[in-house]
Amino acid sequence: MSTHAPHGLRRTIVLVGLMGAGKTTVGRRLAKRLSLPFVDSDHEIEKAAGMSVAEIFECFGEADFRSGERRVIGRLLDGKQQIVATGGGAFINEETRALIKEKGLSIWLDADIDILVERTARRDTRPLLKTGNPREILSKLAAERAPFYAQADIKVPSSDGPHEDVVERIVEALQKAESGKETSRE
């Protein structure tokens, strides 16, 4: 069943949260459900740079990556309404967060550490997890980043159940936001 984006919410929907929270997978399904285009900011960064995120980190460092990330996200927010999945650190950057808050509607996909560890173990493409124990790194990142993610417009739990359940929770939160009810903070 296709549902269009709520009429009053014409801004780009930006998914934020830790790596492994499901931003890309849920984002693709949400875009289909709302009949909107989907884009992953990391893929856009890789296209612009001609190299992978891991290569950018290795060659230029995290600061240069974050600068490029901010420019790419700014461009994505200036375009047509769409669903954007961001990298786990994007919303932590003050300038990037301000851009998203000004021009987009941010949704924090919040998952517990066990889910994040299991999901991120599936692929060896996470530069920040290559420096030590993934559970310890994810726990530390979760503690450091939660205050920033908590500034998102909407918070939705990302569980280990079907991704469609998360999509449904997002759609319900968007409908509540459109109807003027208090933003969902589950």
Structural commentary:
This protein has helices at 23-34, 41-49, 53-78, 94-103, 113-120, 134-149, 163-178; strands at residues 12-16, 38-40, 83-85, 104-110, 154-157. Strands 2-3-1-4-5 form a 5-stranded parallel beta sheet, with helices on both faces. Helix content is 52%, strand content 12%. The chain is globular, with a radius of gyration of 16 Å. It has 7 helices and 5 strands. By secondary structure, it is α/β, with parallel strands linked by helices. The chain starts with 11 loop residues before the first strand and ends in an 8-residue tail after the last helix. Helix 1 crosses helix 7 (163-178), helix 2 packs across helix 3 (53-78) and helix 3 runs parallel beside helix 4 (94-103). The longest helix has 26 residues, at 53-78.
Question: Order of helices and strands, N to C?
Answer: EHEHHEHEHHEH
Radius of gyration: 16 Å
Estimate the mean pLDDT confidence.
87
Most strands sheet: 5 strands, parallel
Number of DSSP-assigned strands: 5
